[in-house]
Amino acid sequence: MEREDFRNLLGEIGKMRMPFGKYGPAGVPPRGMPIYDLPPEYLSWFKERGFPKGRLGELLAIICEIKDVGMDQVFDPLREANGGRVTFRAKRPRDRQFPAEE
């Protein structure tokens, strides 16, 4: 792959966000998680069961391959340009129910 082609590919990856599922807009508001920050376990799940059709699936397969060989730092300039790594943490309930004292 030519250097300019790889640069264009990274630019395309940097603009894409996960449009559905756990890491989509419903789980990571307002637009979903950037696809380069998806956890390797999630990408491996797609790898086992099949990536989505179309360009999104192609990009997820490329990201999975890059992360599998340990080159995740390739995405660091994208993270810096977009304000850092996006993390996903399920919200914990803030209301705690304690048993009444007798």
Task: Please sum up the structure shown.
The protein is mainly α. The chain has helices spanning 3-15, 40-49, 55-68, 76-81. It contains four helices and no strands.
What descriptive keywords fit this protein?
102 residues; mainly alpha; elongated; DUF3820 family protein
What's the SSE pattern?
HHHH
Number of helices: 4
- Overall average pLDDT: 86
Radius of gyration over alpha carbons? 17 Å
Low-confidence stretches: none
Q: Can you give the helix content as a percent range?
A: 40-55%
Overall tally of structural domains: 1
Give the overall form: elongated
Main sheet attributes: strand count, strand direction, barrel closure = none
Assembly state (oligomeric): single chain
Tally of DSSP β-strands = 0
Going by helix content, strand content and strand pairing, the class is mainly alpha
Q: How far from one another are the termini?
A: 72 Å
> Strand-residue fraction?
under 5%
Written description of the protein model:
- InterPro entries: QSregVF_b.
- Pfam families: QSregVF_b.
- The chain is mostly helical and 102 residues long.
- The chain has one domain.
- It has helices at 3-15, 40-49, 55-68, 76-81.
- Helix 2 crosses helix 3.
Summarize the SSE layout with pairings:
Layout: H1 3-15, H2 40-49, H3 55-68, H4 76-81
Pfam families: QSregVF_b
InterPro entries: QSregVF_b
Protein name: DUF3820 family protein
